[in-house]
Design a protein that fits this description.
Elements lengths: L8 H14 L2 H38 L7 H28 L8 H18 L6 H36 L11
Helix pairs in contact: 2-3, 3-4, 4-5
Length: about 180
């Protein structure tokens, strides 16, 4: 199970300041790049969200299109999936910037690839070649299997780490 801890922004910034003094020049360089990329992606997400809202308004209200019509569905959900991909990518960069992880995790890259493939399926034309659909399905199946294997590995490592630390499965301390 993926557990996310809630940390106040002030505490996170204080922690970053304290860690900054301990970082090498290259680690500081990585931090600056990660924070810059995160900021750029945040701007792209906000602009894309505004564009999505305007597009939905235009398509559904002004042009009175049926949301179940194939082209409208493709346009709207293609844009939504693009936003999800950007937000997941930003989240992975932010984890590096906040020093929660030292590098972009393979599991995150696989997840982003799965979301991108899902987007591709949504944008697929109904008259697409069967071979193309089969290739995309095989890629989705392979990425799904890789993601599952990585998650299983992480779960086993988490359980092993808890056992070594004397913590029960529910998070309580094991009595001696």
């Amino acid at each position: 199970m993926n557990q996310t801890r809630s940390v106040s922004p002030v505490r996170t910034i204080d922690e970053l300041r304290r860690q900054w003094r301990l970082m090498t020049v290259y680690e500081r360089f990585e931090q600056v790049i990660a924070l810059t990329l995160s900021s750029v992606i945040a701007v792209i997400v906000v602009v894309s969200l505004i564009q999505l809202i305007l597009t939905v308004f235009r398509l559904l209200v002004l042009e009175a299109f049926n949301p179940l019509e194939y082209r409208v569905f493709q346009t709207v959900f293609g844009m939504i999936m693009t936003l999800l991909i950007a937000m997941e990518f930003k989240h992975s960069i932010l984890k590096v910037a906040m020093r929660q992880e030292s590098i972009i995790q393979v599991k995150t890259v696989v997840l982003i690839a799965l979301i991108a493939l899902s987007r591709k399926f949504i944008l697929l034309e109904p008259d697409s070649q069967p071979a193309k659909v089969a290739a995309l399905a095989a890629a989705a199946l392979a990425l799904g299997a890789v993601y599952w294997l990585l998650r299983e590995r992480d779960d086993r490592l988490l359980v092993r780490g808890r056992r070594q630390a004397g913590v029960e499965e529910d998070g309580s301390q094991r009595s001696p």
